[in-house]
Amino acid sequence: MAIGERIHFFRKMRGMTQKYLGMLMGFPERSADVRMAQYETGTRTPKADLTRALANAFGISPDALTIPDIDTDIGLMHTLFALEDLRGLTIGKLDGEVCLRLDKYKSTYLTMFEMLSAWEKQAEKLRAGEITREEYDHWRYTYPAVEAQRTRDELDALRAKRKAAETEE
């Protein structure tokens, strides 16, 4: 999905009109909707600062807008090939099923393993009914900021617990 399609997807998800979003981005009212239509159709490509502003307006990570072009099966395959080259993604079989896995000897293994494990944990919570689809999508579209906030919250809770224990002594 190209960036224009992602802009359209998130704009619709947030219930915004093109005019409203365009004005939010600072475009004049008379051309705001036209300008956003140009970005959504791919006639124009937003620069990095506009991409950040759009992501901020949607409450998502800029990375959620700038994913690789995976509109075609061939495009997806080349994205997977690039992940093989850059991140050590490998293909193999497990119990007769084709599967993708990480190369343990690649320098990116631990980071990728942690990120994929966090994703799997959230997907499992969704399957188990512990979180809603909306909560799952929020996690995906704000990643990694949501994970960083959870870590901060957990550390703050531990500090408060330690402080309370020290106060009791």
What is the CA-based Rg, rounded? 20 Å
Question: What best-fitting shape do the alpha-carbon axes yield?
Answer: globular
Assign the CATH class of the largest domain. Answer: Mainly Alpha
Distance between the termini: 58 Å
Number of helices: 9
Name the structural class.
Answer: mainly alpha
Q: Tell me the domain tally.
A: 2
Give the spatial strand order of the biggest sheet.
1-2
In the CATH hierarchy, the architecture of the largest domain is Orthogonal Bundle
Number of strands: 2
**Would you tell me the overall average pLDDT?**
92
Could you explain how this protein is built, in words?
- With 169 residues, this protein is mainly alpha-helical.
- It has 9 helices and 2 strands; from the N terminus they run ααααααββααα.
- It has helices at residues 3-13, 18-24, 32-41, 48-58, 62-65, 73-87, 109-127, 133-142, 145-168; strands spanning 89-94, 97-102.
Offer a quick outline of the entry:
The chain has nine helices and two strands, in the order H-H-H-H-H-H-E-E-H-H-H.
